Amino acid sequence: MPGIQPRAAAFGLIAALLAGAALGAGLSGADAAKARMAHMKALGAAAKALVEQMRSPAPDKAVVKIQAARIAAAAQAIPTWFPVGSGRESGAKTHALPIVWSDPADFTAARNKLVAAAATLDAAAQAGDLAAVHAALHPVGAACDGCHKKFKMADKT
Amino acid sequence: MTGLSTDEAAEIRAPVVSVWDLPIRLVHWAIAALIPFSWWTAHHDHLPWHRLSGYVLLGLLAFRLIWGFAGSSTARFSRFLRGPVAIGAYLRGRLPAVVGHNPLGGWSVVAIFAALALQIGLGLFSIDEDGFEAGPLSKFISFDASRAVARIHHLTFYVLLALIAVHLAAVALYAVRGRNLTGPMITGRTRLAPGVPPPRMAGAWRILPAALAAAALAWFVAHGLRF
Question: B63 falls in which pLDDT band (50, 70, 90)?
């Protein structure tokens, strides 16, 4: 995939391997759902930290690079966060809708939007091009939101 | 009193005076418009508009607080916030007529302002689930804490709604009893009950410094405690 930073890809690969190993080791559906929530929170925290830098009068490029890489890596790892059996049927209070698993092609398409947007963001961040980072932020947020609207129970806050 | 018609005599007994000055009316109707607007923009994912609405409400509330110390007599907290004795007397109908907020209504105003201040304050620290749409003060707390605040921000809106419902019910009750409270809040004028001294209206020059101070505060907060 052109445009994906090697660092982000490596992060994604490691995360994927770890998640695969965890499932292989018998991680239950509920545990997988809880792990997913933790991953999503970390992703939200990375976005928060990045947006805060971009809003500050003097953004810290080092922080921008780290957080952009985290977001790109998380986007890569998302497929490993949704093993079959980690929906509501697992007993976990997950907001993931059954359509995640019943319409995998659609879910993958939605997730690929994030992968592409996050790769653009990460490339801009690693190049230290803050204007490009700024421009790349909105598509990432839109990809998060687009997927959540369709595949996640509405969280009215 | 010969030569006066009954109407004219009534006018003398109950002259029409200014009760709500222009700033009070503008703040009142702007808040009345912006609370539904804030709700609507939040529920339709127009968070940039939701934030802007919150900043304007913050400025309006700040102005109203300043006006509560420096404005016309009917705006001043010192005039309309009364103790339990006065409230009890008012409820038993043993208090002389007042112009402006009555002892009970005054506290309902303060309750609405407090709920609104809480709502705005929580909104400033809130963040959406994606971490992109954030209140300007969320940078001072973690993502998890900010999400928790956002949930409380959602819940406390119902407190504000309940207080507004009480306010509207009171206005409706007065209307049923033949007293129109909405008209004076639009025109600013009311008929003074006999024996009640007319309110003292603040000079218009006071509006500018109060508005500038409120706008500066809202600007400062909206920019994450930076000018």
Answer: very high
Residue of B nearest to A52 (CA): B139
Would you list the domain boundaries of chain A?
6-151
Q: What was the ipTM of the complex prediction? A: 0.84
Which residues in chain A touch residue B129, judged by CB atoms under 8 angstroms apart? 44, 148, 155, 157
Q: Which two tokens stand for residue A128?
A: 């230290």
What are the tens digits of pLDDT across the range B8-37? 655 566 789 999 999 999 999 999 999 999
CATH superfamily assigned to domain B23-222: Transmembrane di-heme cytochromes, Chain C (1.20.950.20)
Q: Which residues contact A139 (CB under 8 A, 6 or more apart)?
A: A113, A117, A120, A121
Would you kindly state where each structural domain of chain B is located, as residue ranges?
23-222
First to last CA, chain A: 36
Residue A82 Cα, gap to closest chain B Cα (Å): 18
Q: What is the pTM of this model?
A: 0.88
- Please state which architecture CATH assigns to domain A6-151: Up-down Bundle (1.20)
A47 and B144 in contact by Cβ < 8 A?
A: no
